[in-house]
Amino acid sequence: MEKILIVDDEAFIRENLERILAEDGYRPHSTESPEAAVQQVAEEEVDLVLLDLNLGDKSGLDVLREMREVDPDVLVIIITGYGTVESAVEALKMGAYDYIKKPFKADAIRLIVRLALETQSLRREVRQLRRESKERTILGDTEMVGSSPALLQVYRQVREVAKHELATVLITGESGTGKELVARAVHNMSPRKDRPFVEINCGSLPFNLLETELFGHERGAFTDAKNRKIGLFEEANGGTIFLDEIGEMDMNLQVKLLRVLEDRKIRRLGGTRNIDIDVRVIAATNRDMKEAIDDKTFREDLYYRLNVFPIQIPPLRERREDIPPLLDHFLKRFNREFNKKISEVSREALDLLMRYYWPGNVRELRNMVERICIMYNEPLIKKEFLPSEIWGEGPSKEAPFSFDIPPEGILLEELIGEVEKELIGKAIEITGGNVAKTARILNVPRGTLRYKLEKYDIE
Q: At CA 353, angle to CA 350 and CA 358, rounded to 5?
């Protein structure tokens, strides 16, 4: 039901237009106040304005100008008397859609309103497509697909930090959210895009091997060092080094990394001289870094040195509107790869996918689509094609509890307290009483957890 605003100082005209438009299923609102009309256009989405050129002390042209200042895309039809056609033409030059002369017939109003709203719908669709196209390609060739508000915020952050080629970036988010893709996007959109992008998983190697991988070594630096090795920092010189899972780095190596970030110099193992480097450092982790600092497993000074520009990637369950475009993206990709023609998702299957918790995030969705494209060759994805964890038995993580509300009502605060106490108690059992781990799986600060443990007298 499109919202149409009528601005006219004659009550008879306003009432007549409201009746005609309401009969056609629109939502008409009317006012005689030019100021109220401009304010409504500024604060709400108005699909169409019917604006009289003669509003007593104020010219409709001035009102049109003010409306277009607060909303350049507002669609306006001018209502004019016989003697003011020239002014109506002037209004068209100022951006009005069309004009209609008084006295008007109901059929004429219906026709011009319908055509105007069709035009407005097409304009909005084109703007949306352009915006989605721009936002989807803003991260280059990565698979960061979607246009949810949470993801658009990530896109904006990538755009801004990419301009500043030395700014250190810390990307946080759950596993499978696309931290590496964001890191590549920062590099690809920066002045360093033609230089190396070097990545390493800091949790995949023990201390000694990670140290030599990062900084290199001289011949004879240790027993098996038969040749000089160039480290990844040197390989990335002029470009970007991506330190994935930085939260797993050994504390001793953290000291060396901090020195590199501060001095912009490295020294190979067994070397005697410092080597200047010009590298942007991007780090990523799925850990709660503040908690790691409290646990004495991560240096606070290194955290603040890395966290110059933080980017938090939201989990898929917090941006479910991105699931359909992601499905489309992965289907197109794997259709090409496996020579399949799967093009649609059944309503039942899509409903299940939209409700699922997605603990593995985008990676889990991608793997699911790849598996379906390998196993099936039907054009429509049915519910039965989905993994059992999505449609099978078992409690939903999205709604772990279910309550019926009796006719006499409930004590909400008391019920919430009981549920919270039960959840904390179960989490404590799972972790064996480890407060840090319990806070992590409940996603609450440790101080908050300690307060609730005392509140509910939980051992």
A: 165
What does residue 229 show for φ and ψ, rounded to 5 degrees?
Answer: -125, 130
* DSSP of 189-240: TSTTTTS-EEEEETTSS-HHHHHHHHHEE-TTSSTT--S-EE-HHHHTTTSE
Query: What confidence score (pLDDT) does residue 81 get?
Result: 76
Q: Of all residues in the chain, what percent carry a pLDDT higher than 70?
A: 92
pTM for this prediction: 0.59
Distance of alpha carbon 48 from alpha carbon 97, whole angstroms: 10
Distance CA 111, CA 346 (A): 38
Q: And the tokens for 394?
A: 């078992």
Q: Domains in the chain, please, with CATH?
A: 3-128 (3.40.50.2300), 149-312 (3.40.50.300), 317-391 (1.10.8.60), 412-455 (1.10.10.60)
3-state secondary structure of 280: strand
Average pLDDT over residues 62-77: 90
Asked if 113 and 88 touch (Cβ cutoff 8 Å), the reply is no
Report pLDDT for 292.
92
Pairwise CA distance, residues 253 & 207, whole Å: 7
